[in-house]
């Protein structure tokens, strides 16, 4: 989605002035923040008619948007009036706009007013006008008048960064809602939650290819059973177990007889010795504990009685907030690369493995 943002006036044209405020400066500030909010939170492209204090003729503003093939045009202005009692926010579309454009206006207007309504200014409503930038743009176009530089209330508000920033953020949210923009994952991480994206046969084949110990191949079905039961992707947990146990060969502090597939420590662990790690009664119970431990990270209800360390993790401030495998770094293990390594060195290979036709 291509969005053209037009900060009004600029250069030799200051726009409305009063109370030491200048429209051309204010609208550039709002527009630049709006651009940043849009680009960092939603899937879209943004073009500005100006990014500095420069003169841009009206006919060039619509021409820039038309030539670029913008899907939406949004013009940012502030108001002025001879009466200082006049304060408020209002928005405009072209007089003969189609319903779609009016719907956009309504959604954006509402989002901005829901922010501004707390600050003592007024809602001057949804309006139409025969403005050149609205008339000459070929795509849906909305113009916002962000308060009065002349107003006794508004001029105070326009001096505050929190108001300028809040209006920009509310505008971005309104535009995103109106246009149905797709949210951008700031982390772009690998989700822990979800249905399996790999089969047990695939997992076993992958484990065999990586020379896994037979005990590691044997537990794959438990991973798929508990993963489906609790809603955590089994291939994610199985990949983590591969990393933690060197594909079931162990070789670290944990003894294979402990049935501890994920390096889970005891509640009162004080070091990294064998006795600092939990022992589970069966291989299957160790798998159940692994999922319960992940449940504390992602905020799911454990299956059966949870182990001691689960309760400790559950009490940490970030418990229940972890969403991606990458975020496990610095939490499950002190190494910040821990989660990335699970994805890079294990999960990617598992997902790319083709199950042999004989299967099992
Ligand atoms: Zn203006």
Question: Would you kindly provide a written description of the structure presented here, covering whatever features stand out?
Answer:
The protein is an alpha/beta fold and 360 residues long. The chain has 2 domains: 2-179, Zn-dependent exopeptidases (Aminopeptidase, 3-Layer(aba) Sandwich); 200-352, Lysozyme (Orthogonal Bundle). 42% of the residues lie in helices and 12% in strands. It is built from 13 helices and 8 strands. It has helices at residues 23-41, 58-68, 99-116, 132-136, 154-157, 161-179, 200-209, 214-218, 220-230, 234-245, 283-298, 308-314, 338-352; strands spanning 2-7, 17-18, 21-22, 45-48, 72-79, 89-94, 123-129, 140-148. The strands form 2 sheets. A 6-stranded mixed β-sheet has the order 4-1-5-8-6-7, with helices on both faces. Strands 2-3 form a two-stranded antiparallel sheet. Helix 3 (99-116) links the parallel strand 6 (89-94) and strand 7. Helix 9 packs across helix 10 and helix 11 (283-298) runs parallel beside helix 12 (308-314). The longest helix is centred in the first third of the chain and has 19 residues, at 23-41. It is elongated. The two termini are 47 Å apart. The structure holds zinc ion (ZN).
Mean of pLDDT: 94
- Number of DSSP strand runs: 8
CATH level 1 class label of the largest domain: Alpha Beta
* CATH architecture call of the largest domain: 3-Layer(aba) Sandwich
Can I get a quick summary?
By secondary structure, the chain is an alpha/beta fold. The chain has helices spanning about 25-40, 60-70, 100-115, 130-135, 155, 160-180, 200-210, 215-220, 220-230, 235-245, 285-300, 310-315, 340-350, and strands at about 1-5, 15-20, 20, 45-50, 70-80, 90-95, 125-130, 140-150. Helix 1 packs across helix 6 and helix 9 packs parallel to helix 11.
